């Protein structure tokens, strides 16, 4: 039988991902680039891949939804960025991630 970890909260998901090597916290800058929290490295959408994502809903308020993206960069930096989900989403984060190639995103697009 497989060992499965139930990821019931954002904190438990982050703890599990840290164990898997996704240790960097990312943010999106005002100029639309992904950055490490300490601003030492920045990335364009072409330098980032979405590995996975998790959605969370607030226990008492379904409006308290968030999404956690698991990211890898072309130079090997692995980490996460979270955002509100729905009407409270951060436009900078949402616009950046729309430009990132994620798993399965291009499956239905015809070859050019």
Note down, in words, how this protein is organized.
This protein is an alpha/beta fold and 112 residues long. The chain has a single domain, classed as Roll (PH-domain like). The chain has 2 helices and 7 strands. A 7-stranded mixed β-sheet has the order 3-2-1-6-5-4-7, with helices on both faces. The radius of gyration is 15 Å and the shape is globular. It starts with 9 loop residues before the first helix and ends in a 10-residue tail after the last strand.
Descriptors:
7 strands, alpha/beta, PH-domain like, Phosphoribosylpyrophosphate synthetase, seven-stranded mixed beta sheet, 112 residues, disordered C terminus
């Amino acid at each position: 039988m497989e060992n499965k970890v139930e990821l019931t909260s954002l904190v438990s998901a982050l703890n599990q991902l840290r164990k898997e090597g996704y240790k960097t916290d990312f943010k999106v800058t005002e100029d639309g680039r992904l950055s490490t929290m300490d601003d030492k490295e920045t990335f364009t959408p072409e330098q980032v891949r979405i590995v996975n994502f998790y959605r969370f809903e607030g226990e008492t308020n379904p409006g308290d939804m968030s999404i956690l993206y698991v990211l890898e960069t072309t130079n090997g930096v692995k980490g996460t960025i979270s955002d509100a989900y729905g009407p409270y989403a951060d436009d900078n984060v949402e616009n950046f991630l729309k430009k990132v190639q994620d798993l399965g995103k291009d499956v239905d697009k015809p070859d050019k």
